[in-house]
Amino acid sequence: MSAPEPSVGVLERFAAHLSSELGRSPHTVRGYLADVRSLLRDLDSRGHTPADLDVPLIRAWLSRARSTGASRSTVARRVAAVRALTRLLHREGVLATDPGPRLAAPSQQRSLPAVLDEEQAAAALEGFVPRSPVELRRHAVVELLYATGIRVAELCALDLDDLDRSRNTVRVLGKGGRERTVPVGVPALDALDAWTARGRPELAAGTSGSALLLGARGGRLGVRQAREDVHAHLRAAGLDSAPHGLRHSAATHLLNGGADLRSVQEFLGHSSPRSTQIYTHVSVDRLRSAYQQAHPRA
């Protein structure tokens, strides 16, 4: 009989598996590790090891999480984390069978994203004259997020050579290491030109490397600072929206302008069309408006 599997070894291998093999983001890795750490502590407190993992044990752990007030999204994330863990343990031979596929995640009650309308987006981006390096960066950050719909983490990871001025596109490395090419509008390109010509040289340092956007000390712009840039820029325009709201707004305005759902899915880097379908409420609103205006029996 093999010795009990040490939990610390499981956590280390699981972390490496998530990062190196699955290409999960640091945020996802932290969340999954916290979930699995909780599961392993629960197992240990009941005299079990990872080799004992089965559906009843996992369901009991999930049930205890729900009884302490865990949200549906938290439970769904825990299920995803455990599925990844049991798949790895089964592959390694620690588990004879993989119980993960038999675990059902709670359905998500997704709320409609808050978006800016076209007039609000224009108000946030037009008539602003950036002067300092920080203002030039803020303007470039907001323009690029709205123009491309990329995630804040994807924005911060951009390098100078990811921008292709000959094709007006930007190369983005998304979730799971998936690369996509996204078109960029002229206003965003102009804002980036202003940043690279007059803002970036002022902040550049030995730690800058090839990063497109830089923080105050010359290193690559961090996600937290990028979010603060967005909030500061939108507050100055009298608007209250989060950075992800610009991504939602970009997708919504594309659909509003007649883009098909499949194109928007590729634009956003969604692996499944289900993630993009949340934006179809815009098309329904447009259809309802057109119906009321044009149909004789509306």
UniProtKB/TrEMBL annotation:
Residues 5-90 form the Core-binding (CB) domain. GO terms for cellular component: cytoplasm. GO terms for biological process: cell division; chromosome segregation; DNA transposition. Pfam families: Phage_int_SAM_1, Phage_integrase. Its main location: cytoplasm. InterPro entries: CB, DNA_brk_join_enz, Integrase-like_cat_sf, Integrase_catalytic, Integrase_recombinase_N, Integrase_SAM-like_N, Tyrosine_recombinase_XerC/XerD, Tyrosine_recombinase_XerCD. The active site is at R151, K175, H244, R247, H270, Y279 (o-(3'-phospho-dna)-tyrosine intermediate). Residues 111-292 form the Tyr recombinase domain. PROSITE patterns: CB, TYR_RECOMBINASE. It is found in: Cytoplasm. One of its GO terms (molecular function) is DNA binding. Keywords: Cell cycle, Cell division, Chromosome partition, Cytoplasm, DNA integration, DNA recombination, DNA-binding. Site-specific tyrosine recombinase, which acts by catalyzing the cutting and rejoining of the recombining DNA molecules. The XerC-XerD complex is essential to convert dimers of the bacterial chromosome into monomers to permit their segregation at cell division. It also contributes to the segregational stability of plasmids. Forms a cyclic heterotetrameric complex composed of two molecules of XerC and two molecules of XerD. Belongs to the 'phage' integrase family. XerC subfamily. HAMAP family: Recomb_XerC_XerD (MF_01808). This is Tyrosine recombinase XerC.
